[in-house]
Design brief:
Elements lengths: L1 H19 L11 H10 L13 H17 L7 H14 L7
Helix pairs in contact: 2-4
The chain binds heme C.
Heme C (HEC) binds next to helix 2 and helix 3.
């Protein structure tokens, strides 16, 4: 009985932890492109908020991150993935430097 309760407690804590990690609410979080973004850019760190940087900076950053992926032995971004990610970032990037 006591054991059952600790299992339930552990599950609750686990659920809270998982939920807590989703602190950044990304724009259109459930859309296919947001999911591509989260799945490719949330491996090594949590996926950064697109509004954090202007688009010009994202373009540079993407190249740096592709180098990081290569270093870690992760599969490189496909042409399509890169396009989807760039479109997503462009749409929600910091206003002033949008191209
Ligand atoms: C292979 C692991 C890995 C993947 C996958 C990855 N990153 Fe990173 N990222 C890093 C590392 C390591 C750093 C810190 C390196 C540094 O500061 O130079 C970093 C830092 C960053 C930063 C700067 C820190 C900040 O929060 O401002 C941004 C922005 C970023 N990544 C965006 C992305 C995006 C966008 C993607 C998807 C295209 C991505 N990352 C995928 C490893 C990764």
């Amino acid at each position: 009985m006591v054991r059952d309760i600790s299992i339930i407690m552990a599950l609750i804590l686990l659920a809270a932890a998982v939920y807590g990690c989703r602190e950044v609410a990304l724009p259109e979080g459930d859309s296919p492109r947001a999911r591509v973004y989260t799945s490719r850019c949330g491996i090594c760190h949590s996926p950064p908020e697109p509004g954090k940087y202007p688009f010009g900076k994202w373009k540079d950053l993407l190249g740096l991150m592709e180098m990081q992926m290569e270093k870690k032995g992760l599969p490189p971004l496909g042409e399509k993935e890169r396009t989807v990610i760039l479109e997503y970032l462009k749409r929600y990037s910091k206003e002033e430097a949008k191209e």
